[in-house]
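Predict the 3D structure for this chain.
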Amino acid sequence: QVQLVESGGGLAQTGGSLRLSCVASGDTLRSYGMGWFRQAPGKEREFVAGIKGTGTITNYKDSVKGRFFISRDNAKNTVFLQMNSLKPNDTAVYYCAADNNKLSANLPSPDFWGQGTQVTVSS
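Done. Predicted structure below.
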């Protein structure tokens, strides 16, 4: 079983950048498809970005393509989400997730979740 801890959230201005990190413990991340989800107030949790456990295949929600970039450092057991050109509607709690299917880059049903980190983008 893997435990996930996110960090890097905070307050940013429109057009700014933030980098989220997700450190895993209890297992090696290369065994999992990894991803980031977000949940805004009053809305359902939604997929943002995913990356396969092996290789560099990624997948993104359409509205973040070209602005957000997911990467992983398996040696450090860490997944990152670089968020650029932030917009107020990116405001949400961002969650790191792991899927037992290491070939998954869209994580239809994650098996493990982090506790979340708040991202707030001011206009």
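The two ends are 40 Å apart (CA to CA).
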